[in-house]
Amino acid sequence: MLNPENLDEAAHWGGKIADLRDKYLPGKEVWLGETGNAQFGGEPGVSDVYISGLWWLDQLGLLAKTGHSVVVRQTLAGMTYGMIEEKTLFPKPDYWNSLLWRRLMGRAVFDVRKDGDNADRLRIYAHATPGDKKGVTVLAINLDHERPAEVSLSDFKGRPFSLYRINGTMIVGKEVQLNGQVLKVVNDQTLPRIEGSLQLASDNLKITINPLSYTFAVFH
Q1: Residue 211: Cβ-neighbour burial (10 angstroms; 0-12, 13-18, 19+)
Q2: Which residues of the chain are modeled with pLDDT < 50?
């Protein structure tokens, strides 16, 4: 599932659809009506656990680059690929990922330059930050199972930023941690406060992304 060539299929076909739109209906929005990482209800132990988030966020980033305005997940509740438990209504890992994407990644998409050793295993996306006219959010996803990735963000030197480091206690587990704290509803009914760790401005901005993890960096 996390082979870069497999993940890039979303960009390939998303681009094909965008080309058809430009040819026949220029200016219209492109929506993906439904998607999941496995057919026929999803794959237990894959679609409903932490590791699914690397695929899900990567697909959202790829399709945003091809000009998709909306991506609809199949489904909100029910089956293995649902984002909340059908009986308890407790969030699954991709619910938290979707919430973070919605809050941190705006509609304006920026180009990203990426190079270096093992660069194909590092996926990086940059969007405008919702509600912040000059804010930029960078999402970095490390697909490598063993090697950490170091991301240089020299274009943002001198700007304070907030880090949202995401990892799982187990890659096939159902817990998602934000900056070391497990994300879960409060009193079985209320979403927790979701805040990044504020970092001071620096002239030597480098962020380490652990294996099979991802980080949002919000530059204010």
Answers
A1: middle
A2: none
